[in-house]
Design goal:
Belongs to the NMT family. Keywords: Acyltransferase, Transferase. This is Glycylpeptide N-tetradecanoyltransferase. The protein has 430 residues and is α+β, with helices and mostly antiparallel strands. It has two domains: 218 residues, Gcn5-related N-acetyltransferase (GNAT) (Aminopeptidase); 189 residues, Aminopeptidase, CATH 3.40.630. It is 25% helix and 25% strand. The protein has eleven helices and 17 strands. The strands form two sheets. Strands 1, 3, 4, 5, 6, 7, 8, 9, 10, 11, 14, 15, 16 and 17 form a 14-stranded mixed sheet that branches. Strand 12 and strand 13 form a beta hairpin. The chain starts with 25 loop residues before the first helix and ends in an 18-residue tail after the last strand. 43% of the residues are buried. The N terminus is likely disordered.
């Protein structure tokens, strides 16, 4: 039930910009994975014991859709935490506490996901972590740390937050699991599986039996596989730090000209979202997300938390008709910088990630071009998007290039008979 179980083995959720496009089906990804594994793959062994779609069942239409295992009576859920090696102890990380938040931030900043060439590492801000881990109805007990008993140093972390996710016509209470991180020096200790089991136990104690998570590696068994796309906003810096490369027969000045954006947005009535817009945005979003196979079931509290703008965390803009004052369109992105490793001139890559976008009156292309313009004005270096929802409609047109990595989406203890296409997925996990 974890984001990035293979963070121990090092992988990337957000790849470098290198043009590789893949049309692989789930079956071919699975086949490639099975061909490459030689019986001793420990992560595969762990996931084979979990109630998740198994590789051997791919294509078996006889299995029912829905929960894989029935809930256990709460009285039978293990009441005590799982055992850790004797030098370590469990702690619950209170993200309201400034000191604890700083400890989690420091662990992630120094040890979380890097790209394959070890050039970039996610650098979630403290404000971002506070936002990501404290949505309406969150459980403090799901923010789980591992400390060294003697020094009280935080060396591992995993977190869950509650969510309502609709799968076809069923709205299911789930945990979204994220931020699984083990200190680099402890990656041989096999802490990740026990952390996954522990967060699962704590989720079960709240009578929740399903979860959603993502990873940059293939585990049993993705419900879909998405591609990252990148749009250069500051091409010179991106090339200087090795994030992207100068194209064939391209000079730096031609590249800068290619990616240049207008100074101001073009859509009439385009403005920043405000608190008073929450009901209208909720209606817009609920209507839009209803078309996807898997999507969050947002209410007004969720929209206020996840989409109301927060400085350097999440930005949301909408189009309000100048005549009727009706809110007709909406776009949003969140801020997830990366540390630039080993570069003398730059330490941070400022990246915006496309979040939820709804176009009803304004063409999606124009709406997203306005989003790029405001991101550029806010000094973002790159704008990233997955090919989920209707994003494919604007990616090439707006000069996004495909990255070299994929993001796999998973459901825990919930089987979908068939994998969904990225365009049938209405869910963005941080």
């Amino acid at each position: 039930m974890a984001n990035n179980e293979n963070n121990e083995e090092h992988n990337s959720k957000e790849p470098q910009e290198k043009p590789v496009i893949s049309d692989e089906t789930l079956e071919s990804i699975v086949r490639k994975f099975q061909d490459s594994f030689t019986g001793g793959n420990k992560q595969h062994k762990f996931w084979e014991t979990q109630p998740v779609g198994q590789f051997k069942d791919v294509g078996n239409s006889g299995l029912p859709e829905g929960p894989i295992e029935d809930p256990t009576p709460l009285s039978e859920v293990k009441q005590e935490p799982y055992n850790l090696p004797s030098l370590y102890e469990w702690v619950t990380c209170d993200m309201d506490n400034e000191e604890t938040c700083a400890e989690v931030y420091n662990l992630l900043t120094n040890n979380y996901v890097e790209d394959d060439e070890n050039m970039f590492r996610f650098n979630y801000s403290k404000e971002f972590l506070g936002w990501a881990l404290r949505p309406p109805g969150y459980f403090k007990s799901w923010h789980i740390g591992v400390k060294v008993r003697a020094s009280k140093k935080l060396v591992a972390f995993i977190a869950g937050v509650p969510a309502r996710i609709r799968v076809r016509n069923e709205v299911v209470s789930m945990a979204e699991i994220n931020f699984l991180c083990v200190h680099k020096k402890l990656r041989s200790k096999r802490l990740a599986p026990v952390m996954i089991k522990e967060v699962t136990r704590r989720v079960h104690l709240e009578n929740i039996w399903q979860a959603a998570y993502t990873a940059g590696v293939v585990l049993p068994t993705p419900i879909t596989t998405c591609q990252y796309w990148h749009r250069s906003l500051n091409p010179k810096k991106l090339i200087d730090v090795g994030f992207s490369r100068l194209g064939a027969r391209m000079t730096m000045s031609r590249t800068i000209k290619l990616y240049k954006l207008p100074d101001s947005t073009v859509t009439s009535g385009f403005r920043k979202m405000e608190l008073r817009d929450v009901p209208a945005v909720t209606r817009l979003l609920r209507e839009y997300l209803a078309q996807f196979v898997v999507a969050p079931d947002f209410d007004e509290n969720d929209v206020e938390h996840w989409l109301l703008p927060r400085e350097d965390v999440v930005d949301s803009y909408l189009v309000e008709s100048p005549e009727t004052h009706e809110v007709t369109d909406f776009c949003s992105f969140y801020a997830l910088p990366s540390s630039i490793l080993g570069n003398q001139n730059y330490s941070i890559l400022k990246a915006a990630y496309s979040y939820y976008n709804v176009s009803t009156k304004t063409p999606l292309l124009r709406l997203m071009n306005d989003a790029l313009i405001v991101a550029k004005k806010k000094d973002y270096d790159v704008f990233n998007a997955l090919d989920v929802m209707e994003n494919e409609a604007f990616l090439k047109e707006l000069k996004f290039g495909p990255g070299d990595g994929q993001l796999h989406y998973y459901l825990y203890n919930y089987r979908l008979q068939n994998a969904v296409k990225p365009s049938e997925l209405g869910l963005v996990l941080l």
